[in-house]
Amino acid sequence: MLYIQKKNQIVILLVFEVLFATSCKKFIEVGSPVTKIDAKAVYDSDASAIAVLNGVYSESCRTLSGTNGISVLLGLTADELDASVYAQEFMHTVYTNSINPKAVPFWDFFYNKIYISNVVIEGLEGTTRISNDVKSILLGEAKFMRAFNYFYLVNLFGSVPLIVKSDYHLSISVPRTDKSGIYEQIIKDLKDAQSLLPLDYMGSDLRTKTPYRVRPNKDAANALLARVYLYTKNWDLSEKLASTVINRSDIFQLEELDKVFLSNSKEAILQWQPVDAGFNTLDGRAFILLDGPNTVNPVLMSDLLYSSFERNDKRKEKWIGTKVTTLGTYHFSYKYRIGQYNANQSLDEYLMVLRLGEQYLIRAEANAHLGKLSLAIEDLNKLRQRAGLTRLLVDDLNVVLNEIEHERQTEMFCEFGHRWLDIKRTDKANQVMGVVTPSKGGVWSTNLQLFPIPINDILSNSNLSQNEGY
């Protein structure tokens, strides 16, 4: 695991030159590139402590987006994306829902970021050299990011080791913690983040406000916690927290469809600023087909997803691109409109991590389970109205839940794996993937709902067991 590192060093990758080349106001404003920071020296000043979390955000944006990112790989694992003939062998194994335990996506990355969060939390709690306001925000950010990474670990791998200390002598032998225990820690971290983070979006010095929503604030903690409560079926708290975010209408508003993913989007609750020279988001680069599928753009939108949109749904027009070549007609996710750009252009799109549209869907689902069907439909209709669709008029629970599932499919497609997580948490994975996986050339088995634990980690930790079926 990447969280087993020298205790007194934090490895962070900061690509400052890319950020300085853009015309937008930056959230990373530190001098020269930093690759290693001694854990003791980090907490000598506000700037050096802030740089550690900057590194987490920049590396998260790079690693979790693009061809091998969350949206692509989980889209392939689900029924959203198809792999073209240019897909490499590793992507093909994901495409057929058969992941090799020797090459497991995301595990090392998430634990590496958890390790850094642990070091940050311990370092901040033990220092008197950081100003109290900055210390509070950084503690909140570190706990938010630890919760974010554990959310994906528990949903992709099931029960996983719970590591909340940086001592690698202890973490090397930690057994798996039940999913309920992981969620308990996620909820605790997000509650702490709620109390520690400010309502405002803060700039690079954590003292001045910024219009860019590139660092987590109290609303981001509320939004992620609303999702977590939905996943754990705590409908009351899920509805309450989603409403808390939605009711901040002075800050958050549903945008026009072609403005949702822009850097100044009012729908954004949390975005990450791209850090790769010559590109806006790497998701834009991966999805946008300029000349048909190729090694850079090896995935295509599945016919199943394309056909799931209702007639006259503006999301089909605005968020789906079509490329006609001599070899055929291809559809692709076009939520991000800008792939490659030249050095004279600005960064106009940021990677969307949390947004208001999801909060309406969360509240709708929570209210449906609470028996408040009219309120659930009201929230669905807000999204449908934006998409140019007619209002729904239904009052049957099962019908409402099916409409919510469909709306999540057409609203949140190709965004951080929502579809894959949705069909699993609603117990529809076997039903959906039992049909989809054979059509992709694979064989579906219920154990494929969880990724395998990397074999090297099992060999190095005698207390760590493999997921069933691998």
Could you outline the blueprint of secondary structure elements for this entry?
Elements: E1 9-11, H1 16-21, E2 36-38, H2 39-42, H3 46-63, H4 70-77, E3 81-83, H5 89-95, H6 107-125, H7 132-157, E4 160-161, H8 168-171, E5 176-177, H9 179-196, H10 218-231, H11 235-246, E6 268-272, H12 282-287, E7 299-301, H13 303-307, H14 314-318, E8 320-325, E9 328-333, E10 351-355, H15 356-369, H16 373-386, H17 397-411, H18 418-425, H19 429-439, H20 455-460
Antiparallel strand pairs: 1-2, 3-7, 4-5, 6-10, 8-9
The coarse silhouette is: globular
Strand ordering within the main sheet: 1-2
Given the structure, what is the number of helices?
20
pLDDT < 50 stretches: 2-37
CATH class of the domain at 1-69 and 105-215: Mainly Alpha
Outline the biggest β-sheet.
Answer: 2 strands, antiparallel
**Secondary structure: number of strands:** 10
Structural class of the helix and strand makeup?
mainly alpha
Radius of gyration: 21 Å
Strand portion: 5-15%
Q: Per CATH, which architecture of the domain at 1-69 and 105-215?
A: Alpha Horseshoe
Helix content: 40-55%
Can you tell me the CATH topology of the domain at 1-69 and 105-215? Serine Threonine Protein Phosphatase 5, Tetratricopeptide repeat
Average pLDDT across residues?
A: 90
Oligomer status:
single chain
* End-to-end separation: 19 Å
SSE ordering = EHEHHHEHHHEHEHHHEHEHHEEEHHHHHH
